[in-house]
């Protein structure tokens, strides 16, 4: 029975590690999205840092990416930049790939 319990603990540990990696990659992706949007809005470096943090925080409002999409589309539109959800979703995919790449390089 000890072997089964060991396997169960190993699976639980792997699941916890996988969830932590996913969380870190998503947070990095959101930071990159914030930097991308800040560049579109021509924010200063200080404003860019604060904005990137606000995008990371926005992702905690609800499950999924809809909260981030709404924030980015709303903020960019308010800044006078013509943008639609599909453009933001493409940026999300690009930044997700970049975040995964950065995470793997950092290991």
UniProtKB/TrEMBL annotation:
Q: Which domain of life is it from?
A: Bacteria
- Tell me which Pfam families the record gives: ATPaseInh_sub_z
Task: Extract the Gene3D superfamilies matched here.
Answer: Domain of unknown function DUF1476
Write the protein's name: DUF1476 domain-containing protein
Organism name: Stakelama tenebrarum
């Amino acid at each position: 029975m000890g072997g089964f319990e060991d396997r169960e603990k190993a699976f639980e540990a792997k699941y916890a590690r996988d969830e932590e990696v996913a969380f870190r990659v998503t947070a990095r992706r959101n930071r990159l999205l914030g930097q991308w949007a800040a560049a579109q809005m021509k924010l200063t470096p200080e404003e860019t840092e604060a904005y990137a943090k606000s995008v990371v925080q926005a992702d905690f409002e609800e499950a999924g990416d809809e909260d981030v999409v709404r924030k980015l589309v709303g903020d960019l539109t308010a800044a006078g930049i013509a943008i639609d959800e599909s453009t933001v979703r493409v940026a999300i995919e690009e930044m997700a790939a970049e975040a995964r790449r950065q995470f793997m390089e950092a290991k």
